[in-house]
Amino acid sequence: MKVDVLIVGAGAAGLMCAIAAGQRGRRVLVVDHANRPGKKILMSGGGRCNFTNLGVTPANYLSANPHFAKSALARYTPADFIALVERHRIAYHEKELGQLFCDDSSKQIVRMLLDECADAGVRVETSCAVERVRHTDEGFGVLTAHGEVHAESLVVATGGLSIPSMGATGFGYELARQFGHAVLPVRAGLVPLTLSGKHQQHYHDLAGVALPVVETRTGKLSFRAGMLFTHRGLSGPAVLQISSYWQPGDDLRVDLLPDHAAGDWLVDQRAARPAAEFKNVLADLLPKRLAQRLCEHWFDNRPMRQYRDAELREIGRQLHDWPITASGTEGYRTAEVTLGGVDTDGLSSSTMQSKLVPGLYFIGEVVDVTGWLGGYNFQWAWASGQAAGQVV
Ligand code: FDA
Could you give all domains of the chain from N- to C-terminal order, each with its CATH number? Predict the structure, then answer.
């Protein structure tokens, strides 16, 4: 079969690219080895797909080249995707911090993309693995489970390694290497952290305890959001966000009470409730089980009147700077994204085209551009897909 554009990967980036290319009159085929398109879209945002973020800026992305994402993000903005969502009459709402979610279901986003593909004459074939790719005089010869496909342009939109059970593979990285591209080291991002040693022993049975707002910190970076104790460690948005920046051995701190001047508050409480036990006072600010556990392992528990000012102020300081020893992450099994990937040095930032092999493109998560939690990764998938789709 002969097509103008072959896209490998019917995920967010691949479908977006297909729509843009199909609308330009290109003959487009999208193949995916999974049994249905857009599986990660379907499972995203707890089934409601956090499809973009109103506050997207290039600073919300990690990449060895922080400038690379600028051009594509500026040319396809959250407003562009919102216009598409509104044209398809999909109801949505802003949850927090600019994060936009479907009111009903992620299925609506996949349906929208497939309807747009159909209108643009794009063919999507699922359960179609790609076995071999070779460079030919006319472009690319791609051996798929459904036969050989010849294409002028080949777009690699195979995503990252997270959630292998959803069809994630390292195919895009292998193909990049096959054509001489550098692939930067990959690791799990937006992922729960595991604790080790005494921290694991002390806190593992707090699984399920949640704090609505903490501030996680590593180096100069910090994220203010919720945190959740798990059987093996810590999760919740503030932890997932910092996990993309933290690496084993790095210092990790948690401000358990970012909205409180805890030391002053404790001094006031001593005056108001001198006979109260410290752990009960602390339980007014923190979940009771956590307050108790901190008193068993970190602070001692006495009636408030027995604490001196300096002691209470020091405890307050420590509550704002909890040093936590994380041993690692939960890995790709639960990670939302893969950090690293195809080195942007080898790609055009305006078209995503390879600088080494004309007609070859890399888009979406397979590229070394990774967004924060909150709709940023889909916006990169839409924007990079659109950038390539306009030129393939
Ligand atoms: P994506 O992974 O979407 O698609 C890649 C496609 O390639 C898949 O369909 C796969 O089957 C196919 N493929 C892989 N190897 C292949 C091969 N060898 N041959 C053929 N096909 C192959 N982001 C966000 O912005 N908001 C959110 O709410 C969420 N929520 C979320 C929840 C969970 C649980 C996860 C795991 C991830 C998120 N994300 C997210 C991240 C987001 O899903 C992700 O960044 C994008 O889907 C990336 O889009 P891509 O198109 O690049 O890859």
Answer: 2-184+340-389 (3.50.50.60), 192-329 (2.40.30.10)
